[in-house]
Amino acid sequence: MSDPVHSALPMRPRVAAYVIRRVGEGMELLVFDHEGMPQAGTQVPAGGIRSTESRREAALREVKEETGLKNVRVVTEVGIIESLHPVSGQPRRTSYWVLEAAEALPSRWPHVVASDDGDDAMVFLCRWELLPLEVALADDQGSLLAQLPLLLG
């Protein structure tokens, strides 16, 4: 049964990025925590798609804004999930992308966000986590991670 209150709201287009790097026979996923906000949980880069950009462009922008990484390669789109925002209840359509880091990076680093949205000046504590993850991602962001070995070999 559909929810008439939520079905009347416009669907918000979003992206989420699984940035990976290969380590020996395994893979690591780039995640971050918000400094001073443990309630936000561990996340991957994600956010809204601007009207002037494609889903692919939005994924690249979100990775750069939230982690500082500029040298990443788009591998593929994994899938699209429709859900309700956990706080506002607004319907969302999130396109999940796999990107691969193309540069040597430290195991962890802080990144100060410079953005024109609500994340400006926030500090994200970025780090690599071995897959499969032992930590749960906030907002069900890990729901398509099981597909990565099938897509990437």
What does this molecule look like?
- By secondary structure, the chain is mostly beta strands.
- The chain is 14% helix and 40% strand.
- It has helices at residues 4-7, 55-67, 148-152; strands at 12-23, 26-34, 46-48, 72-84, 91-101, 108-112, 123-130.
- It starts with a helix and ends with a helix.
Let me know the largest β-sheet.
7 strands, mixed
Helix content: 10-25%
User: What would the average pLDDT be, to the nearest integer?
Assistant: 90
| SSE sequence, one letter per element | HEEEHEEEEH
| Rg from alpha-carbon coordinates | 15 Å
Oligomer: single chain
Structural class by SSE content: mainly beta
In terms of per-residue confidence, which ranges show pLDDT below 50 for 5 or more consecutive residues?
Answer: 1-6
Q: What is the overall number of helices? A: 3
Shape: globular
Total beta-strand segments = 7
Beta-strand content estimate:
35-45%
Distance between the termini: 39 Å
For the structure shown, list the relevant keywords.
mainly beta, 153 residues, 7-stranded mixed beta sheet, 14% helix, 3 helices, disordered N terminus
Concise summary:
It is built from three helices and seven strands. A hairpin with a 6-residue loop joins strand 4 (72-84) and strand 5 (91-101). The chain is 14% helix and 40% strand.
Please render the helix and strand layout as text.
Elements: H1 4-7, E1 12-23, E2 26-34, E3 46-48, H2 55-67, E4 72-84, E5 91-101, E6 108-112, E7 123-130, H3 148-152
